[in-house]
Design goal:
By secondary structure, this protein is of the alpha/beta class. Helices cover 34% and strands 17% of the residues. It contains 15 helices and 14 strands. A 5-stranded parallel β-sheet has the order 3-2-1-4-14, sandwiched between helices. Strands 5-13-6-7-8 form a 5-stranded parallel β-sheet. α1 crosses α3, α3 packs antiparallel against α4 and α4 packs across α7. The longest helix has 20 residues.
């Protein structure tokens, strides 16, 4: 059953009407070698789709988007457009940039309402590919492989497909029905999606690589990283908190005061939910404002929501009275020289203990590296990701990997995962079609 956003979490921004979209599209200069297109990780032909909107060709506009990015509706909502396409728009120098994200949302939503399929499968090659994980990388790879005519099966460990688009993105940014529509469209193309079906061992991976012509691991990252806090078991997991708000908002616990640990985009999302459900919310971060990993636009959004920030604050424990949370104990920090992360290092200040009073502590400090339960699968020992070559191939023959599990280039994001999945699928297609004597040949 599709869950609609609760009243506290309506989708951000109104959808463009056709007249509004046409007027905005006509502002575009349709640049040659457009900077906006170069800034898009999936290299959507942005001037082309915008020109089509200006010419009242909404279907053509959407097809231009979806040919490059099958999750175009999601990315229209969750991409950091201020940092990517809109940030690169040449009109930033003289006036407001083109509202590329809103135009993309208009085109893809209009296409979805038409009921037309977004993926046209190619002639059957007889080759069969297993994809482990149904997040953006897995779904985009499945779509690309179906377009090439390969049969595709997806194994998803959770009960719903869609990965973080389903479970981990603030519903006011991406409503559940948008994520599920994209899952449904991938299934509609002939992809078999098996939920509640994890890949749990090296032996199972080897068996799968023998049964299928290729295996793609698109498993994403691991669980939220432990912080080593005193009484950490009393803290809520940020991703679980967001998932509850998205899938079962009526069961979301309500608190008077909430402290969110972390300052990335997940922390902003968790804090926004708490704030909109009536809490007074503070984000607690061990470095300063300039080192916060969230995008500047996200920080400004949080401030506009009434969320406060406690910078230079290192949480060290959850304070509780007979199991009931009453605060988070912190130490003040001081910034030092730049460390290996490229940000200022920090050190705690002795004797600077203080407590931030709250009724709940939410950990949103980022996910850990993918867990290696695959035995012989080589890992990047320096970065902790699955090791792959330039063609996304792993150390196991016939097994590829893509998405956040191999995040060796660029920042983890939906759009980067989509592009990874597409590129990995093309590598798999070349490998399958260049080999004879395999099953189905």
């Amino acid at each position: 059953m599709t869950v609609l956003n609760p009243p506290e979490l309506p989708e951000l921004g109104s959808a463009m009407t056709t007249p509004q979209a046409v007027i905005e599209a006509q502002r575009c200069l349709y640049c040659y070698a457009a900077p906006c297109q170069q800034a898009c990780p999936t290299h959507i032909e942005i001037p082309s789709f915008i020109r089509r909107i200006s010419n009242h060709d909404d279907r053509g506009a959407a097809q231009t988007i979806l040919d490059a990015n099958v999750l175009g509706a999601s990315c229209a909502r969750v991409c950091p457009v201020e940092e990517l396409c809109e940030g690169a728009c040449v009109l930033n120098d003289t006036e407001d940039p083109i509202q590329i994200g809103r135009l993309q949302r208009y085109a893809t939503d209009t296409f979805s309402a038409s009921g037309l399929p977004i993926i046209e499968p190619g002639p059957d090659t007889g080759r069969k590919v297993l994809i482990v994980g149904s997040g953006p990388a897995g779904l985009s790879a499945a779509a690309e492989l179906r377009r090439e005519g390969h049969r595709v099966v997806i194994w998803e460990s959770r009960q719903r497909a869609g990965g973080l688009s389903t479970y981990g993105i603030l519903p006011i940014r991406e409503p559940l029905q948008i994520a599920q529509h994209e899952v449904d469209e991938v299934a509609r193309s002939g992809v078999e999606i098996l939920t509640g079906h994890p890949l749990s061992s090296h032996a199972e991976l080897i068996d799968a690589s023998a049964e299928f012509d290729a295996v793609l691991l698109a498993t994403g990252l691991g669980a939220t990283t432990p912080l080593g806090l005193d009484h950490e078991e009393l803290a809520l997991d940020g991703l679980d908190y967001i998932a509850t708000a998205k899938l079962d908002p009526d069961s979301l616990p309500r608190f008077g005061r909430v402290a969110v640990i972390g300052a990335g985009n997940t922390a902003i999302d968790a804090a926004t939910i708490a704030q909109r459900f009536g809490s007074r919310t503070v984000i607690v971060y061990r470095r300063g404002e300039q080192q916060a990993p969230c995008y500047p636009a996200e920080r400004q959004f949080a401030l506009a929501e009434g969320i406060t920030f406690s910078y230079l604050s290192q949480p060290v424990g959850v304070v509780a009275d007979q199991g009931v949370v009453t605060g988070v104990r912190c130490l003040r920090t001081a910034l030092g020289p730049t460390d290996l992360s490229g940000r200022a290092s920090f050190a705690t200040v002795p004797g600077s203990d203080f407590v931030i009073g709250c009724d709940a502590v939410i950990k949103a400090n980022g996910q850990g590296r993918p867990q290696d339960s695959m035995g012989d699968l080589e890992m990047d020992t320096h970065r902790g990701f699955i090791a792959v070559d330039a063609d996304y191939a792993t150390s196991i023959p016939g097994v590829w990997a893509a998405g956040d599990a191999v995040r060796s280039v660029g920042q983890a994001s939906t759009v980067m995962a989509v592009q990874d999945g597409t590129l990995a699928a093309r590598c798999i297609d070349r490998a399958l079609m260049g080999v004879t004597g395999r099953k189905g040949a």
